[in-house]
């Protein structure tokens, strides 16, 4: 389980990138939190820098679009899904539970809200490389 | 329309095939590809494909037999069909009519040939497209009415509609190409270059400071090579970006660790004497190869070779011993300077692949001439991608190749131009750790205004303004503001078209 940031620090429409391996992007899509692998499945671009509309994110490089609920691409040029990761909010802090890196992408469960997600499976808690660092949305890096 | 033939099996050709099926064409679909590979993405070839050494180790090797096994051709093709051959009757049941050995789907071995990271399609889609893939086959002609495509293996595809997507070829320096001299356009090009770049530190000279040259130079620096970029113009990329932003990109070379020499052309290549069997008439020693070429590619002088006619055709047949023109040793500049070089990359632009259409009645002039809806001068012929001059503009952009096919196929199936291409030009480039994105049409007299970030910080958004409006935008490491601007430009364009 990787702490991301305080819930209030990720307002609706914003996203944040975790420098995990591979990097993970966390989105606040109109109040629902989602986490997916940050790198577009088509080519090297950061989805956390993409265009968020509803629960779709458009890649900033070639405009591939992904459904944050499932990780599935909704248009070309992406043809493969990105992995989704479970998100929880514990004591006002957003956490990401990294999916098993060897698992094939599967549709994620419904996004977890603060009220619905207070448990963190131990197996997942051990899989993170540690504390995620924030690069912030809109970062020029 | 019973049969549609897509000539060209790269990005634009694949998108055309997809659009044909998506728009309800359920007839016979034939794709003809000159390369032996299923469609693959070219942009990574100058970037991650060169620098990812792990991938280099695991990449399967292309063998000459791959193309032959897929197409049934092994003999040297005659690509110089006479007009009589080209316009020979194509109806009936005589040999040479139709496709004798169609491939309902590409064999598994061909899928394996393409680096999975580059593959634009997969077996599932191949099955869904239900197309005949003729790979490793060159189209050599089109009959007078655009109703038959002639192939270099002697076959003829009788067709009702044609999508021309033959792309462009990297422009080469005139004369024979010594070993160690590369262009970068195809997967084979990239593999050959990568092989040369993984043999320890090399002195690399990149001729041409355009996007391919800059990205390749950047990759070579990342691999630890000593890199010099030679650009004939005062600055690279002025036509694309304008002088201010071109200056910024020139600095990327210098900051990134490459030398940039501007304002000088290339006089020729020096080469090592090849080891020929005794009795060979070729001169020995370090011989200059005066080509008198301009790295900008503005002048194309195919006849400019001083090595004798017997050697002018050797560039594609380097493995044939006596024709091997030796290994490059240096690049001689037009100002007299000599740059020692182990590897030379020639990035001086590309020419549209229209040679196979010469002698046909199709209008061609630096590309297949099309109206704004990608419709060519013959009925039932459309063109897309790098080979297409659409409404007077030939764009060698990845995005154009993905956006034009929808419109082109719609017009092809409608048998008239019912829609025109209105997409906003867009391209990107990754070099020296910076991501450059550009969208829009840049008026020559536009003023540039930085609205986010700063060039000094390495990340910014620049707007090209003209007559009180934003006409184009350039971003360096500034994706989000760029996306917003690109959307605004797109909306503005849609509103005014």
UniProtKB/TrEMBL annotation, chain A:
Which GO molecular function annotations are given, in alphabetical order?
3-phenylpropionate dioxygenase activity
Q: Does the keyword Cytoplasm apply?
A: no
PROSITE patterns, A to Z = RIESKE (PS51296)
Give the enzyme class: oxidoreductase
* The protein's name: Bifunctional 3-phenylpropionate/cinnamic acid dioxygenase ferredoxin subunit
- NCBIfam families in the cross-refs: PRK09965.1 (NF007422)
PANTHER family the record matches:
3-PHENYLPROPIONATE_CINNAMIC ACID DIOXYGENASE FERREDOXIN SUBUNIT (PTHR21496:SF23), FERREDOXIN-RELATED (PTHR21496)
Q: Which organism is it from?
A: Streptomyces flavofungini
Q: What is the lineage of its organism?
A: Bacteria, Bacillati, Actinomycetota, Actinomycetes, Kitasatosporales
Q: Which residues form the Rieske domain?
A: 2-96
Q: Which Pfam families match?
A: Rieske
Automatic annotation (TrEMBL), chain B:
- Domain FAD/NAD(P)-binding: from-to ranges: 4-268, 318-404
**What keyword terms does UniProt attach to this protein?**
FAD, Flavoprotein, Oxidoreductase
Does the record carry Plastid as a key word? no
The cofactors required by this protein are:
FAD
Biased composition, class Low complexity, residue ranges: 63-76, 84-98
Q: Where is the Reductase C-terminal domain?
A: 426-494
- Name the InterPro entries on file: FAD-oxidoreductase/Apoptosis, FAD/NAD-bd_sf, FAD/NAD-binding_dom, FAD/NAD-linked_Rdtase_dimer_sf, Reductase_C
PANTHER family, sorted:
APOPTOSIS-INDUCING FACTOR 1, RIESKE DOMAIN-CONTAINING PROTEIN-RELATED
Task: Report the protein name in the record.
Answer: FAD-dependent oxidoreductase
